[in-house]
Amino acid sequence: MSRTASALFSSLLLFLGSVLPAGASASLLADLNPGEGSSSNPGVRSPLATIGSKILFVGEEPGSGEELWVSDGTPQGTEIVRDFCPGECSTGFAPLGTLRDRIAVFSVSSSSRYSLWRSDGTRQGTYFLGPNPGEPLQPCSDSSPVSWGNVLYFNAASTGSCVLWRTDGTREGTRQVAGYAESLTRAGEKLFFVDDGLWVSDGTPNNAILLRGWPEQEPRILGALGSRLLFVASET
Asked: Which of 33, 56, 92, 173 has CB atoms 3.0–4.6 Å from 48's, for a disulfide?
């Protein structure tokens, strides 16, 4: 079977439309794993992101491990985007968010190494963001990314502990912003986070300011109301 899927595949329809209108019929879009036993291993693992009129998902076909696929809802537009680990080995993917509804940002893990990538659903638009070739960048489990304008903010660990990073979908615009940012929240034109106190940042590198520290207990951010931040803290 060619990597550009020409058959139709029912499992993928679960991603493209969960509910069909009355009287509508479903058709097979792409069969990534044809033959007996395909019902237990349909070839589609999980959706990764929706960008514009496309869906990125993790798929697997015979002779290949789990890799990055894309579909625009047509047989011709359903194909593998990139095989990060050629052969039967699989690649791990962790979505971080989208930029301008056109670019997906995600972490790729292969051979126990992590790196940051972006994709617009095309081979040319899928490439490594950083930080440096051969240097891992693993999103933290409690990253809770925040999208602000054309930039995505998230916690990730490069060579040590988790710190706050930003990316605008380009290599030049992917860099560290501040230290660890727990409960990262946007309120108006500011980013607030907790790290041994309450901090505020305008989103640019090395420009975070400590507003106040609480010696007994960390503040707990509840959320934002417009440009105001609601949080819980002791009175002392």
From this structure: 56
